[in-house]
Amino acid sequence: MAEPIRVLLVDDHQVVRRGLRTFLEVQDDIEVVGEAGDGEEGVTRAQELHPDVVLMDVKMPGMDGVEALRRLRELDNPARVLIVTSFTEQRTVVPALRAGAAGYVYKDIDPDALAGAIRSVHAGHVLLQPEVAGALLSQDESPGGQGRGGSLTEREREVLGLIADGRSNREIARALVLSEKTVKTHVSNILMKLDLADRTQAALWAVRHGVAG
Hints:
By secondary structure, this protein is α/β, with parallel strands linked by helices. The chain contains 11 helices and 5 strands, in the order βαβαβαβαβααααααα. The protein has a 5-stranded parallel beta sheet with strand order 2-1-3-4-5, with helices on both faces. The chain starts with a strand and ends in a 5-residue tail after the last helix.
């Protein structure tokens, strides 16, 4: 049996954390390994506990979720971060995803759907809800952003399209009849050519430029 997905809860509301823990602890394949009440404590706990997935609120006192995301990326922490929040404004959605979040869901999400979202981001998927993609598409393009896509090979564009569809490296390898090692090389080349930090940003770039899998 596979090891359970290790989850860290980061939210300034204890009631929210308790509710999340109560539901997640009945999932056979998910284990809540810790909690934190703000972004700074969340970063510290993530470094100590090595979770696979962090459920992160955005608006918190002190260090907020966006800054905590940036700090985790600076520390090369491999945990996948799933934003769970009640805020829907573009000024909240977009910075969180650009900071490296692997997905974005709302606190009124169905519990079973939340468990599915955790499994999805843990498997390497990028979780973009339609309204989130719309928010990204409405943002101003940075100068030269479109032009960088011209440096991609046809195979790299295929891989990028599948990343935008939320496919993991394993699924991309299966779809394109490649080895996972080759897919990882293509992903690295895509990030380098587009000057992006991670596959989440690659998915956002693909959405904005109409790259389909």
